[in-house]
Design brief:
Blueprint: H1 2-13, E1 26-31, H2 40-51, E2 55-61, E3 70-73, E4 76-81, H3 89-114, E5 119-123, H4 130-133, E6 143-147, H5 151-159, H6 163-179, E7 182-185, H7 188-196, E8 205-207, E9 232-237, H8 246-259, E10 265-270, H9 276-285, E11 292-296, H10 300-309, E12 312-315, H11 321-325, H12 329-336, E13 341-344, H13 347-353, E14 357-360, H14 365-376, H15 379-397, H16 403-416
Parallel strand pairs: 1-2, 1-5, 2-4, 5-6, 6-7, 7-8, 9-10, 9-12, 10-11, 12-13, 13-14
Antiparallel strand pairs: 3-4
Length: 417
Amino acid sequence: MAIQETFDTALDDAANVSALPLKGRKVLIIVENLPVPFDRRVWQEARTLTAAGAQVCVICPTGKGFTERYECIEGIHVYRHPLPLDASGALGYLLEYGVALFWETVLAWKIFFRHGFDTVHGCNPPDLIFLVALQFRLFGVPYIFDHHDINPELYEAKYEKRGFFWRLMCCFEWITFKSARVVISTNESYREIAQVRGGKKADDIYVVRSGPDLSRFVAVEPNPSLKKGRKYLVGYVGVMGAQEGVDILLDAVAYIKNQMGRDDIQFVLVGGGPSAKGLAADAERMGLSECVTFTGRVSDHDLLEVLSTADVCVNPDRVNPMNDKSTMNKIIEYMALGKPIVQFDVTEGRRSAEEASLYAKANDAKDFAEKIVALLENPDERARMGAIGRQRVASSLAWPYQIPNLIAAYKKVKRQA
């Protein structure tokens, strides 16, 4: 009851949105890597700004289940553009970013004349959206940079090197920070980067975490058929790329099955990405197809069904500078549903989960596997950890606690314009 009361108070006090503090404002949000409303962070920001009185338009790519080039959803104008298939390699990313910038520019001018906007809100990656925003500087339109990913570290994590393109990422990041009137950081590590690498003043940076909306992100009835007759289910949700460590998870599954002799655990992996097909092929080659299910991208209901059925949830993100400083949405979502977690020991992962998670040795598939099994065999500990995670989300990490800083960032931009 105390948790619910705390959360209800946060809802009531969330920047007093009902007073329409942004009435009359017109906002353009640009995001490249996911369609809206599938990108839950961007969608929550758009809905909150709309509830606060602003007119909101969003430019984003098309994607599975989101193919309409224009939709008005809950009063938010969503303009989508096509993108090439998931990029890989320098030429692939050059093509993807070039196509995206072309469409973002075309649609931004279309929206400018059709709806108008007084603020551009760019969500990376990549750190190139300033090229669109700067076109409207002559009209007095300021730029808010919403820092989702640290791209120099992301490049290094993907390719395990630095070199010319890494230096280019650093350059784009620096220009992005300099172009922005205000920076929205997803955590304290990103806030520090905005100050140290970006040279931003502390009072021009607002931390807005990617907390779930607990009025929408709620548990559903578990579906025992997902376990395929096995006793336990371990759930994963997220993008499947090189840096997400799903290959380490498969190694852990192989250890559980072949070395620990366990055939009573089903693993369900939700999400898509550039490595998804290759990982599914790896699972088949390793003889894991029967106990590992790859769902691809699924609806919110199906996602919630998997997580609601799971006994333990995992985050196998590799330990590297990128993942050490980044807050993974899946961690907060697992906690919101009261699920105990196994992950590697990274700074922001531990800051988010605290005692709601077990922490394996860095990139160690065997230790990861052993911690999964140990947690599955201890239902009391699972319940204790799940309750801690749920309380942390409901008392400090959920979306209503982020709203005041989002509104404050927009008020700051208005004062500077």
